[in-house]
């Protein structure tokens, strides 16, 4: 929805006020209700679909392939497609690059290890069917739930194949659950002195700046950085706001992860 | 001097020009802070590209060893008229290119460009240039860092400083001299004497994980103040030299 200049100004004023008055009545640390469905794609190893209350919808599918990890450096490959955006648009390219980098740098390669020579390589395909706000948080939630519901074929051959070369063989129907720690990305909007989590599209339009925070293994990790949510209201933020943003994520991230796990 | 200029009122023909006492031409030396160990040094040269509205060339030597260098050429074109729909404010675009060896993945460059345009959207007075576009082109000539192929951190901070200098050279109105400071893989772009942050980038995990974010920002601020001082000193010297040259011309 396109807001007029006056509407935006009104919204900005209310978000800057103390406490922030958000248009949907949420408190600063409250997420929009989301619905997650997992394991609904029969042809992929793990899948999830996430629907936010504003109609943002995202589907993630994870497929695996056995590769020689001495030759294949990257064991995870992400592909992002956002409806209504060209593949070479800054949003798609930026999202793709962040996700690839976060997953490759944070996820433990050992958890995908099959034998001494072979590993699983995960192909994660992200399809954003409709997006009304910055889709990164929802995509990362969807990837989190997809990877945590991923089932991989069970290995029945020996896991030591250095002396006697052999190709890994798998059980006909038994599957093993993938146990992996997955990073979650959060977007925080800064409006004046206030920091609000999970900004809706109207809030993104009037935010002074955005912060991207990564949460992995119980702490805030890299990448953390400022994120332009709009072009009209973007301005500098105080160091305190940045610290507040990180503090907010430290407070709520464990609860979010717990909710995603349940 | 004896040809009388009839287009201007020059006063009596036997009048003598006022002469000011001024020392010789001001030498512009590379600004470096090499006296302080473990600090970066910077060489600045503005206006090298003549067909751009403004340009800057930056050579930054890294803090760890002399071999770590980042060479960056920035050019700014604009504000130039943009066709099509009416825009109440200028649109900013940032393009990054490695002119020698291409070492950085394309996606990372896109992220970097997004980040930089976000930083400068907050700093350039875009309302002043309606219906126009400002294009920034960054050419990375060289970047080396010991074992790594490239060091994104020093490239980002050089980009921020380079764009600021090029914008000043182009005469595009900015709210403040934005400059970046690095500390332990954290880059912070500050304005307003370090009281406001326009860009924060932490790409990799660093050793100082336990350190408080505010103290990290404080460390970056020290680096920012040093960089900004070097930039402002260079601009002031350039200005002095121009004044001097102008004075020489009027004397003849």
From TrEMBL, chain A:
One of its GO terms (biological process) is U1 snRNA 3'-end processing. Residues 30-153 form the Exoribonuclease phosphorolytic domain. This is Ribosomal RNA-processing protein 42. GO terms for molecular function: mRNA 3'-UTR AU-rich region binding. Keywords: Cytoplasm, Exosome. SUPFAM superfamilies: Ribonuclease PH domain 2-like, Ribosomal protein S5 domain 2-like. One of its GO terms (cellular component) is cytoplasmic exosome (RNase complex). Belongs to the RNase PH family. The keyword Coiled coil does not apply. It comes from the Eukaryota. Pfam families: RNase_PH. It is found in: Cytoplasm; Nucleus, Nucleolus. It comes from Lachancea dasiensis. InterPro entries: ExoRNase_PH_dom1, ExoRNase_PH_dom2_sf, Exosome_comp_Rrp42_subfam, PNPase/RNase_PH_dom_sf, Ribosomal_Su5_D2-typ_SF.
UniProtKB/TrEMBL annotation, chain B:
One of its GO terms (molecular function) is RNA binding. One of its GO terms (biological process) is nuclear polyadenylation-dependent CUT catabolic process. Residues 42-173 form the Exoribonuclease phosphorolytic domain. Its main location: cytoplasm. It is found in: Cytoplasm; Nucleus. Gene3D superfamilies: GHMP Kinase, N-terminal domain (3.30.230.70). One of its GO terms (cellular component) is nuclear exosome (RNase complex). The keyword rRNA processing applies. Keywords: Cytoplasm, Exosome, Nucleus, RNA-binding, rRNA processing. PANTHER family: EXOSOME COMPLEX COMPONENT, EXOSOME COMPLEX COMPONENT MTR3. Belongs to the RNase PH family. This is LADA_0C09362g1_1. It comes from Lachancea dasiensis.
